[in-house]
Amino acid sequence: MLTINPKEISTGKLHQYLLGAIAPRPIAFASTIDxxxxxxxxxxxxxxxxxxxxxxxxxxPARSVRNNTTKHTLDNAEEVKEVVINVVNYDIVQQMxxxxxxxxxxxxxxxxxxxxxxxxxxxxxxxxxxxxxxFECKVKDIIxxxxxxxxxxxxxxxxxxxxxxxxxxxEEGTIDQYKIDLVARAGGSFYSRARDGFxxxxxxxxxxGIGVDQIPFEIRNSTVxxxxxxxxxxxxxxxxxxxxxxxxxxxxxxxxGLSEEKKHTFAQEYLLKNDLExxxxxxxxx
Length: 286
Known about the structure:
286 residues, single chain, alpha+beta
């Protein structure tokens, strides 16, 4: 394993490692305005949500690794403590990328990228009309982590109004992850189209899973089942009853009497289908 002391390599090299390893990252398409009223638009992938009460988003326009300059976005946020954070979906990913070009301060990236300036309701910066979700924010704080190239500048934003396109909502009125079609940033020139890689894992928040340590020894030491498989098996509140296992055996007589390895193989197939109950019943067959 390559072991690195951050102080012993160049900031540029460390930057590459960080961006390649900590990915995919959501993108804050940040719209700001300077005190003269000139708009600016730029994407940042040092970004996430950090609370719902108050609704808090944080993104970081880091100092340039190359020449230690600051971004116009940071300068504007210091002058006019307001920002609109627009999310980026696949439909606008190329325009978003174009806007990241280091144009001079007086250049309007909305125009350069061919995006529509939509007036906000609570703040001065414009929204990106083509973005499916837009967060109007007040800048509550800016945390400066250093003065050298690569240092972060955490812009702490409180959402004062959000706008959501109705066509990305599902029947329950929540955001449909396939319809919103978000894009995330990775290392180098790589991006990730989120909906192409979605899978679901039941959250063990309300249910208390038995844990991997409570799985029988012969299953835990399986040569077939993976760590992910064991994690799924440990995320149940209780094992199937003896009666339900016997009923399963009557319905699937071909699975009775199999070797441990074959039982584990069949159980793994059920796990791939997210049928956790049947997987456990196979494993508990005698």
